[in-house]
Design a protein that fits this description.
Helices cover about 90% and strands about 0% of the residues. It has about 80 residues and is mainly α. The protein is elongated.
Length: about 80
């Protein structure tokens, strides 16, 4: 009887771990989508001429990321 209870407990823990794993994957996917959207917004703001500081405050992206986007935007405009 005790072995059966332990076996069920282990099975339930495995199921719980799988559910937690799935939730963590979903959170990472959503975080990635959120960051991608913030980068898109920051790129549009740069194209409109807003300052790096203002974009950083609004999007919560680090200024270093925005400066990289600004550099890429300049390269793309130069190639066009």
């Amino acid at each position: 009887m005790i072995l059966l209870m332990i076996s069920r407990s282990i099975s339930n823990e495995g199921t719980l771990l799988n559910e937690v794993d799935g939730m963590i994957d979903l959170l990472y996917e959503r975080q990635g989508a959120y960051l991608e959207a913030q980068v898109d917004v920051a790129t549009a703001m740069l194209a409109e001429g807003l300052s790096v500081e203002m974009i950083s405050r609004i999007t919560k992206l680090p200024q270093s990321t925005i400066l990289k986007l600004k550099s890429q935007l300049r390269k793309n405009v130069a190639l066009a």
